[in-house]
Amino acid sequence: MAGPSLTVVPLEGGDVAALLARIPAAAGVGQVLGPDAKSLLIARPANLRRWAATHLGAGKAPRKGIRPPTDLSPITTAVAYATTTSPFAQRLAFERLMARHVPLERRRDLKPPVYLQLDPAARFPRLTVRPDAADRGHSFGPFRSRAAALEAIAALHRLFPLRPCDYTFEPAPDLALGLGCLFAQVATCAAPCLVRISEEEYRALARRAETALGSAAQRPAELADSLPSWVGALASMRGLILERGKEGLELYPVVASAVVEEEMAIVPPERLEEAVAAVSWSPPPRPRDDAPWLLPWLHGKRTGLYVSVPAGEPAAETAARLRG
């Protein structure tokens, strides 16, 4: 897994003060290493030197009644760090470093995303919630929780009355299954089971739902609250993250839920359109799914901006949306 290049500062002779003098008082990612270079602690502090001091017994005394952090200096062999240039760059470096040492299933701070599936070519298509995107060709998302995915289904059903049931049936005007269905009675379902809509018309309805679900640019305004701009068809998902860094505007492509830092660019504001036009939209060298940590970043308080980029959109339009 790619990640930041770390500077390793050894703790020699137990001299914590000498180690701290070599660590910058800047934002970044830090790692405390124990015997045999074992990872003891990984963090993304606003001040690397203060963070290291806190965990090596040299920090500021805590307030009365507050338990101080465990002093790791007796088992510490070194502290590794990398400075970062922006809040998003810091989060990205932290996640790449964590991926080297902690499997996703052991991350208590992250929850796996969920997805919606819809196959308009099915005989009677319906929206379903799935815990993964194994069928990427018919998967949409990501959503941060099952509740969020169900809310999106409810919003879509208000505009596109697809069937909510999972029954297998042969359509008939007198079908008992359909006549006893509440959704058919209150007309919140197009009721293909009762032949209130033809099979071809019903699949056309599903295709319209697929279009709205798959592309933020073609999505009715009524769906904006339930379907954020980053939700779309995974097979064609493209977006850009813009962050103001110390060296200029940082531009990170997102392709199919993967942040492709290999293609990131740092440019002055006046060259933003040029940088957007130069994005290759190539997937990462090795497939990866950043949705588990990218979703909390998107939903949280952030300084960076994310925009979905439809295929074929002129660079000038994308740059204008990035500038806000």
Question: What does this molecule look like?
Answer:
The chain has 324 residues and is an alpha+beta fold. It has 3 domains: 7-102, 3-Layer(aba) Sandwich (GIY-YIG endonuclease), CATH 3.40.1440; 114-223, no CATH class; 237-323, no CATH class. Helix content is 28%, strand content 19%. It has helices at residues 16-21, 48-55, 87-101, 146-159, 176-179, 182-185, 199-214, 272-277, 291-299, 315-323; strands spanning 7-10, 28-33, 39-43, 78-83, 114-117, 128-130, 139-143, 232-233, 238-245, 248-255, 258-259, 265-267, 305-308. Strands 9, 10, 11, 12 and 13 form a 5-stranded antiparallel sheet that branches. A 4-stranded antiparallel sheet has the order 1-4-2-3, sandwiched between helices. A hairpin with a 2-residue loop joins strand 10 and strand 11 (258-259). It is elongated.
Layout: helices, strands, pairs:
Layout (H helix, E strand, L loop, with lengths): L6 E4 L5 H6 L6 E6 L5 E5 L4 H8 L22 E6 L3 H15 L12 E4 L10 E3 L8 E5 L2 H14 L16 H4 L2 H4 L13 H16 L17 E2 L4 E8 L2 E8 L2 E2 L5 E3 L4 H6 L13 H9 L5 E4 L6 H9 L1
Antiparallel strand pairs: 1-4, 2-3, 2-4, 5-6, 5-7, 7-8, 9-10, 9-13, 10-11, 10-12
